[in-house]
From TrEMBL, chains A, B:
GO terms for molecular function: kinase activity. It comes from Sphaerisporangium rufum. This is Sugar kinase. Belongs to the ROK (NagC/XylR) family. PANTHER family: GLUCOKINASE (PTHR18964:SF173), ROK (REPRESSOR, ORF, KINASE) FAMILY (PTHR18964). Keywords: Kinase, Transferase. The keyword Kinase applies.
Length: 396, 396
DNA sequence: GCTCTTTTGTAAATCCAACTACCTAAGTTC
DNA sequence: GAACTTAGGTAGTTGGATTTACAAAAGAGC
């Protein structure tokens, strides 16, 4: 990673990385991989064990001599507080250091009540979810919010549905009660990162995540990092126009935005116009299951229109994978087929040569997992580990 | 940069960075900024002077005591070989370490003759251009090629106009004669990086460069880095379709690709269809100067159509600046106006809040400058400096 | 011209981190 | 169960880089 390529000795953070990735399972492995001497390895491992990040596992199998003590990343060595705020629902959880959920509650909170109400509520839920787990074990907090976020400061810039949240710096509010690093990002960015890290990180460094739900948004992972843009507004594909949209007026004032012709809202509208009795997406699912031709056609057309925009994005970004998520994409195979059809027709040959277009693997857990990984990614990064002293230099 | 934020002492590379950026101009400055002791500073500066990267300048003004010896980045401390290969023309130059051109030749080479012919020719020109300058002073080489490039290996993947160049790993071929680091990238990426580093780097980290010439392409700088995508094909916007293109058949087989309706080729075709006698873009320039209404309309329409694609890209990437380059964009103000008009109408409010849309500042030098900066960026990066020993440990 | 201030250089001392060398632990193999 | 093999720990030594302390250079101010 950030190793000074020459011959600088491996740092504690790099040793943790070897253990986390499974490249090294014993002290001897670490010595072989890094070229570090036994004492140096022992020092770093002891440091990591002091911090609770690494644990000695059962003894491994002998290969003819003393069996090695297996080292493993200690996911239980700390907890991460996460919350994924949505327009309709907020998911709140406590995760371990691997991002696995230890406890979770989904709440119907009216986010419009503003950060002064919602954040304390979330923090109370965190306290509940922590239960007996020591508060000192909390290593960080991560929130995904349906707004544009200036990531470095964790400040919401412009909220799509939460006017009361515009311009709020969230980390200080959380850190006042939980004095740990706090990370905040846009909800779709968080999901994109979650999908990437949890399902694709080993194979892929460039991923486009498209969320199709009530609205349409995207998150871009480029070169392994979330692409945020100048104001944190990257990925706002909802108001890119499509061709042959039929002249639908979008609430943004333009016509034929992909949001207005291919979102869940648009599908419901089109089905009602076709005389179908659909109140919610669940009704659409029923019609699809029943094999209703009109419904299939509407969904597939939405997929094709969305595919146009995805094709443009594929040409521009050249991702290795396009992941379609959000409740609409996750439930409707015809939509995914429609996207595939158009992308392979309209993107350049090179961009689609090895392009995969898939449905979300994480589903509705993506937000929670993404938030947790956003935190652990920073907290366990070699640079962060190396910048943090092993233990307090002076006690006072 | 990659400084282990804690309290690790500043490295030689970081000291060079301070001097290059002008943050520190004397040894005392460096001591103050880094917290390093005088001997430690002296050691690093001596190292940099040994390498020829830093030179003692005139003595600075005294502030009441001994006047400081001013330190300056020594751009003359080495040379960089650069070449920007184009379909119609190849620019070849020798630059100093600041990217300034020391000598340059533009050639009409038929790149189709293949790397076996063209590369030796370029290397001969470099030898000519170097003249009396010592070959040992060559620190690196950089090439921009009109092809998709796998950057890490410097291998061309898919060549747009140069079938004979497909799948060629260029660095070994150059390094055989000039044993220095060799960097190769797509021509538009190189120009985008050049514009960013040379004109915008201090203010902006996200930039979209669009080249409008015979064809249309783009280079993306995201978070200060060139975005390359999974196969190095990012930025291929030429075959994104526009709405209301009129059903023009593009050579890619689809209709209404922006390349087929807004490129230089398309403008010439449309003017001819309108009865204008235009052989080259120079004729179009004449007509624009003469204020020909039809010509203005055609160019402006091309701008508007291009603007649609740029607007989509702006929504997706949220750049701080859009730079329009290539000979068409550089010569035709109406095209730029057309882009501006549509982008501000069709991109989301947040993305355009502080968006600037400008013509290239570097013009036809962009390729050369970009190539030089691509090399110096790597060669002078703190990590590279620190990974390179000061002088040979053993002579043999 | 003398003193003060600021900058830079040099040498001895110190500190920190890693290494070598030696030792113990705990298996397998015969 | 004796010898071999591999893993892991400990202590003194070594090496490199940095710092402190001491000096010297070079101009400003009086």
């Amino acid at each position: 990673m950030s190793r000074r390529s020459g011959s600088a000795p491996a740092t504690t953070g790099e040793v943790l990385h070897l253990i986390r990735t499974g490249e090294a399972a014993t002290r001897a492995d670490i010595g072989r991989l890094t070229g570090l001497s036994r004492p140096a390895v022992a020092l770093r491992v002891a440091d990591l064990m002091d911090r609770g990040l690494v644990a000695e596992d059962t003894a491994g199998p002998s290969t003819g001599g003393r069996p090695p003590v297996r080292l493993a990343f200690n996911a239980a060595g700390g907890t991460v507080l996460v919350a994924s705020l949505g327009a309709s629902r907020t998911q709140i959880a406590v995760c371990d250091l691997s991002g696995a959920q230890l406890a979770r509650t989904d709440l119907e909170i009216d986010v419009e009540r503003g950060p002064g109400v919602v954040l304390p509520l979330i923090m109370d839920v965190w306290a509940d979810l922590l239960g007996d787990r020591p508060a000192a074990g909390v290593r960080g907090a991560g929130l995904g919010v349906p707004a544009t976020v200036e990531f470095a400061a964790g400040r919401t810039e412009s909220a799509r549905v939460m006017a009361s949240w515009t311009g709020v710096a969230i980390p200080p509010l959380v850190a006042a009660r939980y004095p740990v690093p706090v990370f905040v990002d846009n909800d779709v960015n968080v999901i994109a990162m979650g999908e990437h890290r949890a399902a694709y990180a080993r194979e892929v460094r460039d991923l486009l995540f498209v969320k199709v739900s009530t609205r349409i948004g995207a998150g871009v992972v480029a070169g392994g990092e979330v692409l945020r843009g100048a104001l944190g507004a990257a990925g706002e594909i909802g108001h890119i126009p499509v061709r042959d949209g039929g002249g639908v007026l979008c609430r943004c004032g333009n016509v034929d935005c992909v949001d207005s012709v291919a979102s869940g809202t648009a599908i419901l509208r089109d089905l009602r116009a076709a005389g179908r009795q659909v109140a919610t997406l669940a009704d659409v699912v029923t019609l699809v299951r029943a094999g209703d031709a009109e419904t299939m056609a509407v969904v597939r057309r939405a997929g094709r229109l969305l595919g146009e925009v995805v094709a443009s994005a594929v040409n521009l970004l050249n991702p290795a994978v396009v992941v379609l998520g959000g409740d609409v994409a996750e439930r409707f195979q015809p939509l995914v087929s429609g996207v595939r059809e158009v992308v392979h027709r309209r993107s350049t040959a090179l961009s689609t040569r090895s392009l995969r277009i898939e449905r979300s693997r994480l589903g509705e857990d993506a937000g929670i997992i993404g938030c947790a990984l956003m935190v652990t990614d920073h907290i366990l990064a070699p640079d962060t580990i190396d910048a943090t002293p092993a233990r307090e230099p002076a006690h006072h």
